[in-house]
Amino acid sequence: VQLQASGGGSVQAGGSLRLSCAASGLTFSDWSMGWFRQAPGKEREFVAAISWSGGSTYYADSVKGRFAISRDNAKNTVYLQMNSLKPEDTAVYYCKAEGRFRSFWGQGTQVTVSS
Fold this sequence. Notes:
Blueprint (H helix, E strand, L loop, with lengths): L1 E5 L2 E4 L4 E8 L7 E7 L6 E6 L6 E3 L7 E6 L4 E6 L8 E8 L4 E3 L3 E6 L1
Parallel strand pairs: 2-11
Antiparallel strand pairs: 1-3, 3-8, 4-5, 4-9, 5-6, 7-8, 9-10, 9-11
């Protein structure tokens, strides 16, 4: 199983980025997908998740109203649209495939927001 995250970068506060996570080696539509992030010196934290069908989404309070998670099962890809970015959003962002009995992590993509 491979989860390839991309789309990170450096932006100014108030800007936007769109992260993508392309999955291979699994039946993508069978898995819930999530985004997590880890800032320097902090624990990894939940950001957003989406059900296998895309019908249900969940967000951390800190990103609610600014971030949107979506998925395209035909492309085996999950997205995280990040708007109104803040310096405190600076972190390495990871995607995760969550199954009933196991999960897989992708490699991270760095997001840096400057004030």
